[in-house]
Design brief:
Length: 110
């Protein structure tokens, strides 16, 4: 199962996310559609953060993807980043609604 944690500040802004594990919706060696969907949503958000907000602060390893926004972002870049990350959260929750056996999306206040 994939566990996606969205980190929010006390004021509700998304400060980062951590996506861990493999969905496991397919047998070994087969195409895992749920894992591919999760990856597509997450990497699209990272691409948007990079291209639109000039933020490239993610770390990845096998089955793990983690990103936190830098504290020193300009206000307008922060606002755009919030839109991108909120959209990512919506996408992940939509996947969870259909495939809850394979992905769990949780929010933590930091």
């Amino acid at each position: 199962m994939t566990k996606a944690t969205i980190y929010r500040s006390k004021n509700g802004d998304i400060t980062g996310f951590d996506i861990r594990g493999h969905a496991g919706s397919a047998n070994n060696g087969e195409f895992d559609m749920v894992c591919a969907a999760i990856s597509a949503v997450a990497y699209t958000a990272l691409g948007g953060l990079d291209e639109i907000c000039c933020v490239n602060t993610y770390k990845e390893s096998d089955g793990n993807l983690r990103m936190f926004l830098p504290d020193n972002m300009a206000s307008d870049a922060w606002t755009r980043a919030q839109i991108i990350l909120e959209t990512m959260e919506i996408g992940l929750k939509q996947i969870e609604n259909e495939y809850s056996r394979y992905i769990q999306v949780i929010t933590k206040e930091v």
